[in-house]
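Batch job 17 of 40 flagged for manual review because the log was empty.
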Amino acid sequence: MMRLHLHLLSDSTGETLDAIAKAGIAQFDGVETIKHFWPMVRSEGHLTRVLSEIIQKPGLIIYTLVNSEVRRTLEARCRVAGIPHVAALDPVFEALERLLGQEQKARPGRQHMLDEAYFARVDAIQFTIAHDDGIAAEDWEEADIVLAGVSRSSKTPTSIYLANRGHKVANIPLVVESPPPPQLFELKRPLVVGLTTSPDRLIQIRRNRLLSLNQTAETPYVDQEAVARELAFARRIFADRGWPVIDVTRRSIEETAAAIINLLTTRAAENER
């Protein structure tokens, strides 16, 4: 197991660098990554203090600095100390400058400005939390996306992920003994998506849930035949309504959300024709 100190140095919050670092490290096996976050570095004095810490635990520096003087100082000192360093967004900025015919705005944290999109995302998160697990059916028509599926089919985490992308989401559990309210079948505006999974995977997730709650693992909730009936019940509803269905068995939350966003984009394009 190789150990790597990864220093994420930014003149903003560092969220972008964290996402880039996660994506990069995921492509390598046998690496123990120790992340060090250095946000809001906007002066040479602050940079000097940070570098004194980095030198004690050398590794790779991934940085985003729009202040040219602070950036030149970092690069010069890294070369002297022999510390590898990468400007994470340079290729993106350079390509955009060429295509758009203008220089980038040298404003730290510009992507985090409280613009209209920010407030829309906050609104989406509030809506999604308030409409989790079948709550407030009278508001479902206001949603962008409605997720339906049996218990433990990743409805809630997928909803929250989509909300963080700015989409208002409601999610509805499908229970054999308790049919969903009629509002679900009358929706016009939202994209309704069915989530399904394999019986074995669902039982495994449910067993783990019961164990975490210190409850018995021998209930109809995890019975093979009962689970199969639940999934068949949900699939019949999806088929009868012609809703798109996503099998989450081998998908991460991010992959499921990406597939849903693609469906939403396709529908919007079709509506514009």
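Reviewer: the log was empty due to a logging misconfiguration, but the result itself is present. The radius of gyration is 24 Å. Unflagging and moving on to job 18.
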